[in-house]
């Protein structure tokens, strides 16, 4: 009997060493979660009376429990290196077979899909417009490969100050080449439907009527009809046009693009002091853009950024969690599959419910404490030696019995 008990101890110590060795081997594996060997006593119930104080029958390996504690966050320079701060798993699909991982080292394949090193595709909720996402069923996340289309200018905003003490120009007939026919001017670049830039110049002319200015507009040096007077209140705030918007007549750029139909917004225009100033100047059009990079915010929204200053939402990363993460089935490559013990996957979004936030440009390191593992290795080694010594002792006792005359 002592031989069998000691042998079970040897097997347990060997299993403990195997678990420890696996933890140590993966100390630098991104997203790896350490395991812990758990043991249970073996007792032959039914062979002894209830009141018996007989010893048990040894030990067995009851389970190898995974430890899903947070690993350290290591920062990188790759925007598609992703780490989860808190609970949750990235969702992957390999030909429809779903798996889950904490290893966020992702790249892009030849079709623009975001994949891990094994080619499994990262799952995300598709963009539905108006900053909303279809959170029903996640899909393969694919980066935009083509150019960002242009948008024609529809409105230009002028945050200017016109001097209250300005004099009426000497030349009453406006001429863009005659500075004596206007007081001040400023310009902004606008875009047609093909993304071609055009310079829109606005001329401000003081009227003889107090607090009134007249405007003249040219696009690419061509006059544009529809400019209206600007009228200010005695306190310098805008009175007319109502709401600040001054529509212009459509302008045909002559390039095959649709006519530029835009308004000028003077809502933030003022008439203070004695100096002309341009405090802000903007418009809502842009030219064609080429992809320059990808970024991911803390809520998992993936943006494609372009040379024209625009960004497009490509999707929102899907995260998964489980009632019992320790019940997940390990399938290798730092990935898990759901099982009966883990329960069904609970899909959600970063920063909501029990899901953590996402850190772009970072990776979660292994949660293995190397010092603790080395101590466990020594302990398992001592246990193995002690059980081996038990077998040696039992052998000596048996030999003594055999040698009795």
Summarize the structure.
The chain is built from two helices and 30 strands.
Layout of helices and strands, plus pairs?
Layout: H1 2-25, E1 35-42, E2 58-66, E3 73-75, E4 82-85, E5 89-94, E6 97-101, E7 107-108, E8 114-115, E9 121-125, E10 127-129, E11 132-133, E12 139-140, E13 155-161, E14 184-191, E15 197-206, E16 212-219, E17 222-224, E18 230-232, E19 238-240, E20 245-247, E21 263-265, E22 277-283, E23 291-296, E24 301-306, E25 311-321, E26 329-332, E27 335-337, E28 346-349, E29 357-360, E30 362-364, H2 370-402
Parallel strand pairs: 13-21
Antiparallel strand pairs: 1-2, 3-30, 4-29, 5-6, 5-9, 5-25, 6-27, 7-8, 9-12, 9-25, 10-11, 13-22, 14-15, 15-16, 16-17, 16-18, 18-19, 20-21, 23-24, 24-25, 25-28, 26-27
Rg is: 37 Å
**How much strand content do the residues show?**
35-45%
- Summarize model confidence as the mean pLDDT: 92
Report the structural category. mainly beta
Q: Tally the beta strands.
A: 30
Distance between the termini: 23 Å
What would you note in describing this structure?
- The chain has 405 residues and is mostly beta strands.
- The protein folds into three domains: 2-69 and 367-402, no CATH class; 77-132 and 293-363, no CATH class; 155-283, Flagellar hook protein FlgE (Tick-borne Encephalitis virus Glycoprotein, domain 1, Sandwich), CATH 2.60.98.20.
- The protein is built from two helices and 30 strands.
- The protein has helices at residues 2-25, 370-402, and strands spanning 35-42, 58-66, 73-75, 82-85, 89-94, 97-101, 107-108, 114-115, 121-125, 127-129, 132-133, 139-140, 155-161, 184-191, 197-206, 212-219, 222-224, 230-232, 238-240, 245-247, 263-265, 277-283, 291-296, 301-306, 311-321, 329-332, 335-337, 346-349, 357-360, 362-364.
- Strands 5, 6, 9, 12, 23, 24, 25, 26, 27 and 28 form a ten-stranded antiparallel sheet that branches. Strands 14, 15, 16, 17, 18 and 19 form a six-stranded antiparallel sheet that branches.
């Amino acid at each position: 009997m002592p031989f069998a008990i000691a042998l079970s101890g040897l097997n347990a110590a060997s299993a403990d060493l195997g678990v420890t060795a696996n933890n140590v081997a993966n100390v630098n594996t991104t997203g790896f979660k350490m395991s812990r060997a758990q043991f249970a006593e073996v007792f032959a119930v039914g062979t002894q009376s209830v009141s018996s104080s007989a010893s048990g029958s040894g030990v067995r390996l009851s389970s190898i429990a995974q430890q899903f504690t947070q690993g350290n966050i290591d920062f990188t320079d790759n925007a598609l290196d992703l780490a989860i701060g808190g609970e949750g798993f990235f969702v992957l699909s390999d030909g429809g077979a779903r798996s889950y991982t904490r290893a966020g080292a992702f790249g892009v394949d030849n079709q623009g899909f975001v994949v891990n090193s094994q080619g499994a595709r990262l799952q995300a909720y598709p963009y539905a417009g108006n900053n909303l996402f279809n959170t029903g069923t996640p899909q393969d996340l694919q980066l935009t490969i083509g150019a960002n289309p242009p948008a024609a200018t529809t409105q230009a905003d002028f945050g200017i100050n016109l001097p209250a003490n300005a004099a009426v120009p000497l030349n009453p007939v406006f001429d863009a080449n005659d500075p004596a026919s206007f007081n001040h001017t400023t310009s902004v670049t606008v875009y047609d439907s093909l993304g071609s830039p055009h310079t829109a110049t606005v001329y401000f002319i003081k009227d003889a009527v107090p607090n009134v200015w007249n405007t003249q507009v040219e696009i690419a040096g061509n006059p544009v009809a529809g400019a209206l007077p600007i009228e200010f209140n005695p306190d310098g705030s805008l009175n007319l046009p109502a709401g600040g918007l001054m529509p212009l007549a459509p302008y045909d750029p002559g390039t095959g693009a649709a006519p530029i139909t835009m308004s000028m917004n003077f809502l933030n225009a003022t008439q203070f002091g004695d100096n002309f100033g341009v405090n802000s100047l903007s418009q809502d059009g842009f030219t064609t853009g080429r992809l320059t990079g990808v970024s991911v915010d803390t809520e998992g929204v993936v943006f494609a950024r372009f040379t024209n200053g625009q960004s497009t939402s490509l999707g929102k990363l899907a995260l998964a969690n489980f009632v019992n993460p320790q019940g997940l089935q390990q399938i290798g490559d730092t990935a898990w599959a759901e099982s009966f013990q883990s329960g069904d996957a609970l899909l959600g979004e970063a920063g909501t419910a029990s899901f953590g936030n996402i850190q772009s440009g970072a990776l979660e390191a292994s949660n293995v404490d190397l010092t603790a593992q080395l101590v466990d290795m020594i302990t398992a080694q001592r246990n193995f030696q002690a059980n081996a010594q038990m077998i040696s002792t039992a052998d000596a006792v048996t030999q003594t019995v055999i040698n009795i005359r």
